[in-house]
Amino acid sequence: MASDKPDLPQGTLDLLVLKTVAAGPLHGYAIAQRLLQTSRDVVQVQQGTLYPALHRLEKRGLLTAEWKLSDTGREAKFYRLTRKGRSELDAETANWRRLTAAIGLILQAEGDAS
Amino acid sequence: MSWWARLFRRRQLDRQLDAELRDHIERQVADYRASGMSEGEARRRAAAAFGGLDQAREYCRDVRGTRWMEDAAQDVRYGVRMLARTPGFTAIAVLSLALGIGANTAIFSLVNSLLLRSLPVRDAEQLVLLDGGSWTNPIWEQIRDRRTELFAGAAAYGQDEYDLSRGGQTDRVEGLWASGEFFDLLGVPAVLGRTFDRRDDRRGSAQAQVAVLSFDFWQRRYGGAGDVIGRTITIQQIPFTIVGVTPPGFFGPQVGRSVDVFAPLAAAELASGPDRLDSRSMWWLEVVARLRPGQSADAATQALRAVQAQLRDATLPTGWPPAQLEQYLRTPLTVAPAARGPSHLREYYQQPLVAVMVVVSLVLLIACANIANLLLARANIRRHELTMRLALGASAARLGRQLVTESLLLSALGAALGILFASWASGLLAQQLDVELDLSLDRRVLAFTIGVAVLTALLFGLAPALRAGRLEPTDALKEHGRGLAGIGRRWLGEPLVVAQIALSLVLLVGAGLFVRTFARMATMDLGFDRDPVLLVSLDVSRAAPEPEARAALLGRIGQAIEGLPGVASHGISVVTPVSGRGWNAPFRVAGLPELAGRERMAFINAVTPGWFATYGTRIVAGRDFEPRDRPGTTPVAIVNEAFARKFLNGENPIGRFVTRGEPGGEEISTEIVGVVETSAYRSVRDPITPTVFLPFEQVKDGPPAASLSVRAATGSPAALVPSVNAALTPLHPALSLSFQPLADVVSTSLRRERVLAILSAFFGGLAMLLAGIGLYVVTSYAVSMRRTEIGVRMALGADAGRVVRLVVARVSWLLLAGVAVGTGLSLWASRYVQSLLFDLGPRDPVTLAGATAALIAIGVAAALLPAWRATRIDPVDVLRES
User: Which residue of B has its CA nearest to A45?
Assistant: First the structure.
């Protein structure tokens, strides 16, 4: 992976997926595209990671999936956030904010010292 | 979706996954096309962008969490194939497991229903029993009047045999006199009609003449007829109206005895006289109570003790000596938890059942060792296959799991067959023991069987699985199973065989002890002849309630029997020998110091002239009773030799006077006119019992029942039943008779010993056979491993005798080690069975020597076949192979 596209920290992919799907039902390809666009091409997810993540979230009941006719004329699997997924998203988002703020503080402090 | 749904919809899920991933790629292709790429270019880029498709698919499958199940299914399929490839091994393993697990399940289901299971009544754990034996009806009436202040409720019941005949030959069923609170207290409803209650249980009321049938009895006797309610049933020739039927599965308050007919306690006086209810020294009722919610058994005991003084005072037995009354007043009342119901059968069979449970688990252990041995031998043959799989990338853990799966398969097959075997065997066993039990497979028995099956699989599967873990992939590439590889390599098989031999010896010694105990009891000199005698139990209480009429009726019975063809002699007695019943009293001999305490007690029987001749009991001194020994003439007695030894220190008893003390304080002095040889009185097991015989006609206070004994001149006494029945039935319409050869009574009293002997002999033999097979497997394997060595030795001039010695020497060491360990174990374990033995020390040397000899014989036989095969090895073949 190129150096301008950093690895996602452990566990953040789930959060990003939940956030992406929160806007409305999406199929896997659209989720990957949306992640890419929203992050201005920084977050490029390997499909070998995205689909297991989707299936894992579905199994945990955070997403539900439905086969629906799509724009291509074929059926596609659309993922949608469940109520449980929504509260997970809120909790994880808050967590993430606290964590990044804390990490930011630490990094700042280190910067002052050097 | 649950994991099993994910597992079973695997195909569909796989298809959907493929469609989803393909959809992704198609969209990517379409996007690339839209940006102006050619179809081919777009497809190539899309595939590259996606990355490993197969990998993504596998990751998604892992997410399902059913991987282990899919692996397990694969292991099972593979295991089935492996087991099918060696049908001989599989059959031996499954059959020995089926026997082992089946025997354990069978015995456990008996243990479960006799020793563990609660009564099938409402909240059985709240039930308590008035501890310390049986109680009189006056005591029950005292408790009944206080039952709601002491407990949540209480009830009483007394077991009885109900004779349902209307005269002539008896028709005996299990009966229960139950107080009106009984069904209500236990929470047992009626499935048909109604149960009886307090309104029915009133003395002197016609309403007390009602009866409730058990479900089984209703099915058996009435074919489950719906119109049985309102019909009449006669109990001891008193008519009762059937009012209801209890639910199936309710067998009464005693485990092991199924009650057929229930009748109110108040009606007991109609059937067997008011004394039954009024007497303050007729101890025949059990008192059961239900605790209040939150009340402990101890609290109930305290409540009872608070009223003990009033209760005891109001029920003082009449005519007792002051010392005994004092004791009666002082003995504290206690209640004990009774969830499982009281059962003397439980006490009687607990120890033998536990002994047999230990035996069958040892047999299973031996069977496990055998299968472990077979698996180990097979694992050595399968080394090549297993190491090849390792080399191809299977993990050692995966191989171990494969082998454990095969073991579990074997034990599951064994357990399934074993349950079938057990359901047949436990029924047979209960029948042999004459207990009526609900032996249906309940959750506890099933859990036990499954637990045993898993445990055995681990026991015999662990060693081969661990061994597989130590294999190296490179082993596959080495030359396998040939050459000198077997020599010097110690394998687990040998310690296992030593353990097997040791355990079998323990079981054989146990079997020997129980068989010899039974043999001794079955053949011992009882002091009478059991074979020619027919017992006729007479219940004359209704035909002749008054003592005078009774004597006259019995006289007429004697005359009717006299001279019947085929009858050599006959006699009437109050107590039937070996029936378990007894009658005793304190005695002292005039002119000799009185014995102390319970030592004064001797058994009594009242017999007619000719009774000794009928039983073949020899009169060693003096005379038999004669017709002149009647009421009004000198009271006389005959004593047995045991009595003479104990009470007269061996002095000549003839002409001495013996005095019998009675509860009322009255003393009866009788002159000893004869001495007879000592014979068994209450049971075959009882030690020599001092007994005093009195002339039947001079005894006024004896029990109303009596038994007529008829000695057949030739042949089976059972052949006399029709003629005796025909001779006696016309004497009185209300005379009840039942017939039984004396030999049957004796053999019934040996039931426990017989069943224990049969079971221990069967399992001892099975253990010996299994140990023999184990030894055979180990020896055959050793011979096949040492083929080269033996071939070389033969090429160097060893003859057949030397080869046989080579093989047998090894086996002899195993046998000796096993016997040594087994002897030690037997000597240690035998003390636990001492109380089940009779006239035999637990370390009986004859038994130990016999068991050792049998085991060595089997061991040598198991070794000779492989030894003989070793002599057939052709040195030329062996040398050519290497």
Answer: B50
Amino acid present at B613: A
Range with the poorest average pLDDT among B66-80, B87-101, B671-685, B708-722:
B66-80
Which chain A residues have a beta carbon less than 8 Å from that of B27? 29, 72
Chain B residue with minimum CA distance to A74: B23
Residues A75, B24: C-beta atoms closer than 8 Å: no
How many other C-beta atoms lie within 10 A of the C-beta of residue B304?
21
Q: How far is B439 from chain A (nearest CA, A)?
A: 45
Contacts for B190 with CB less than 8 Å, ≥ 6 apart:
B183, B212, B244, B245, B246, B247
Is the minimum CB–CB distance between A32 and chain B shorter than 8 Å?
A: yes
Of B1, B51, B64, the CB nearest to A46: B51
What is this model's ipTM?
0.85
CA B805 to chain centre: 46
| DSSP H helical ranges for B382-442 | 383-391, 396-433
Tell me the residue ranges of DSSP E strands in B134-246.
153-163, 168-169, 172-178, 192-193, 210-213, 232-235, 238-245
Per-residue pLDDT tens over the stretch B785-824: 788 888 888 888 888 888 888 888 888 888 999 999 999 9
* Residue B707 neighbours by CB distance under 10 Å: 21
CA distance B584 to B323: 19
Count the Cβ atoms, other than its own, within 10 Å of residue B636: 21
pLDDT band at B650 (very low <50, low <70, confident <90, very high): confident
**Residue A27: which of B23, B55, B64 has the nearest Cβ?**
B23
Q: What is the pLDDT of residue B138?
A: 93
Task: Quote the CA–CA distance of B755 and B222 in Å, as a whole number.
Answer: 33
Contact map slice: A 90-109 vs B, CB within 8 A? none
Average pLDDT, stretch A15-33?
A: 89
pTM of the model: 0.69
Task: Give the residue from B23, B62, B64 with the most A CB atoms within 10 Å of its CB, the best one to mutate.
Answer: B23
